[in-house]
């Protein structure tokens, strides 16, 4: 019997928890709140109905009048539920009291027609069930208590309640206690069922609509694009600086170890290292500043443009022959100018990594609605530098060009004598 009794006891405990447990009590409170929210609509309904009937009033004892006011209050509540801010307010309450995971809700205001319709349906369901459960919670417990007191109170047995129960028959009066307990149990079961119904419908009616999911996907794509942009900024800025510093430090070390060290060259190399480091720290602060503010707010501090090209070439560690056509510094929009600067910077870094201190030719041509960047350096024939995980320089350059509606490509040219990097950036891409 003990073995058989354990499952029965477990079922009893589970039933008691479902009816009177912490979650059931929270959902009951949620329903009571819905009943409180229904009251203004119900009172307004009684005023409206009193215009058509003298027998209808806020405190009328007529069940038909109160039922009519209840039914008229529901569409009024639905209109209120269609207000955009109704969804975040309903979500805030339902998240706490319904026991539904927070990630299933949509916190933003309901802006689309589908979202407003769902929120209105939820609000109507909440206040509708809440009004019924609240009314039963107010009326049924006193009635059940009086019913259970019938066998012990002659006064109650002589009252209208006793007449309703047939209190003149002793055997019927004895059933008052179990009947009252059944009423309270039925109230608890009805409240638990209504709370469970709300909990099941909450993710459907207060969850994200397809339009909300699309907007969330667009936000995630924008955030990912911003993260990729920051990664490219850090890669280009820091990568170029480290390549230039490494080249200058290596050259200075070799000169110092020479039998007759050229101290002037060493000083120039150290000054170039210092200048590159200072400039890179400033660029790094600018890029990291984007992490502390929105993309739009950080647009003006997004990094240097072609106006800083001379300083970049002077501290690159390479002999660069630069040719400008069409005044690209003044005529190119800011976004295109910044992306072009980063493309040149990454091109310099690639030359330092793969070819060393070789001569480089750079041409920037602004004409026909686009900026063309061309970089050429001789191929040394040495093995290219391979970094763990592979380099991302050319891919980053191609991504920068693609964001502006252009394209970039790199590869051997002139029968393999030189390496050529070409990027074409539409000037209109910087004005969008």
Automatic annotation (TrEMBL):
<dbReference type="InterPro" id="IPR011712">
    <property type="entry name" value="Sig_transdc_His_kin_sub3_dim/P"/>
</dbReference>
<dbReference type="GO" id="GO:0016020">
    <property type="term" value="C:membrane"/>
</dbReference>
<dbReference type="InterPro" id="IPR036890">
    <property type="entry name" value="HATPase_C_sf"/>
</dbReference>
<dbReference type="InterPro" id="IPR050482">
    <property type="entry name" value="Sensor_HK_TwoCompSys"/>
</dbReference>
<feature type="transmembrane region" description="Helical">
    <location>
        <begin position="31"/>
        <end position="52"/>
    </location>
</feature>
<keyword id="KW-1133">Transmembrane helix</keyword>
<protein>
    <recommendedName>
        <fullName>histidine kinase</fullName>
        <ecNumber>2.7.13.3</ecNumber>
    </recommendedName>
</protein>
<keyword id="KW-0547">Nucleotide-binding</keyword>
<keyword id="KW-0808">Transferase</keyword>
<feature type="domain" description="Signal transduction histidine kinase subgroup 3 dimerisation and phosphoacceptor">
    <location>
        <begin position="227"/>
        <end position="295"/>
    </location>
</feature>
<keyword id="KW-0418">Kinase</keyword>
<feature type="transmembrane region" description="Helical">
    <location>
        <begin position="67"/>
        <end position="86"/>
    </location>
</feature>
<keyword id="KW-0067">ATP-binding</keyword>
<keyword id="KW-0597">Phosphoprotein</keyword>
<keyword id="KW-0902">Two-component regulatory system</keyword>
<dbReference type="GO" id="GO:0000155">
    <property type="term" value="F:phosphorelay sensor kinase activity"/>
</dbReference>
<keyword id="KW-0472">Membrane</keyword>
<feature type="transmembrane region" description="Helical">
    <location>
        <begin position="171"/>
        <end position="199"/>
    </location>
</feature>
<dbReference type="GO" id="GO:0005524">
    <property type="term" value="F:ATP binding"/>
</dbReference>
<feature type="transmembrane region" description="Helical">
    <location>
        <begin position="122"/>
        <end position="151"/>
    </location>
</feature>
<dbReference type="GO" id="GO:0046983">
    <property type="term" value="F:protein dimerization activity"/>
</dbReference>
<keyword id="KW-0812">Transmembrane</keyword>
<dbReference type="Pfam" id="PF07730">
    <property type="entry name" value="HisKA_3"/>
</dbReference>
């Amino acid at each position: 019997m003990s073995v058989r009794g354990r499952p029965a006891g477990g079922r009893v405990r589970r039933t008691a928890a479902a009816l009177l447990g912490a979650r059931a009590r929270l959902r009951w409170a949620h329903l009571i709140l819905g009943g409180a929210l229904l009251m203004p609509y119900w009172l307004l309904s009684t005023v409206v109905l009193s215009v058509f009937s003298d027998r209808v009033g806020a405190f009328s004892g007529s069940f038909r009048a109160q039922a009519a006011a209840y039914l008229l209050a529901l569409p009024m509540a639905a209109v209120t539920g269609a207000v955009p801010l109704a969804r975040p307010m309903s979500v805030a309450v339902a998240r706490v009291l319904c026991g539904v995971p927070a990630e299933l809700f949509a916190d933003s205001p309901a802006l689309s027609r589908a979202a407003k319709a769902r929120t209105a349906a939820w609000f109507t369901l909440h206040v509708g069930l809440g009004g019924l459960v609240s009314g039963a919670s107010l009326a049924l417990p006193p009635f059940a208590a009086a019913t259970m007191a019938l066998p012990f109170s002659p006064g109650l047995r002589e009252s209208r309640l006793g007449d309703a129960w047939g209190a003149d028959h002793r055997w019927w009066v004895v059933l008052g206690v179990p009947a009252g307990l059944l009423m309270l149990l039925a109230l608890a079961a009805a409240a638990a069922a209504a709370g469970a119904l709300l909990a099941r419908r909450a993710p459907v009616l207060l969850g994200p609509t397809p339009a909300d999911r699309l907007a969330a996907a667009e936000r995630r794509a924008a955030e990912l694009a911003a993260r990729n942009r920051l990664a490219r900024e850090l890669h280009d800025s820091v990568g170029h600086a480290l390549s230039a510093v490494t080249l200058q430090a290596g050259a200075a070390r070799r000169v110092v170890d020479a039998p007759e060290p050229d101290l002037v060259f060493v000083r120039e190399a150290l000054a170039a290292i210092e200048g590159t480091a200072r400039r890179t720290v400033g660029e790094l602060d600018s890029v990291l500043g984007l992490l502390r503010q929105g993309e739009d707010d950080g647009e003006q501090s997004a990094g240097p443009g072609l106006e800083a090209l001379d300083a970049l070439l002077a501290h690159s560690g390479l002999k660069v022959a630069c040719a400008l056509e069409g005044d690209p510094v003044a005529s190119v929009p800011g976004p295109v100018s910044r992306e072009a600067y980063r493309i040149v910077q990454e091109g310099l870094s690639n030359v330092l990594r793969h070819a060393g201190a070789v001569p480089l030719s750079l041409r920037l041509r602004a004409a026909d609605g686009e900026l063309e960047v061309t970089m050429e350096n001789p191929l040394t024939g040495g093995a290219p530098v391979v970094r763990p995980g592979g380099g991302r320089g050319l891919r980053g350059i191609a991504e920068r060009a693609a964001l502006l509606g252009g394209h970039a490509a790199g590869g051997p040219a002139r029968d393999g004598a030189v390496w050529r990097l070409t990027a074409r950036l539409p000037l209109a891409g910087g004005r969008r």
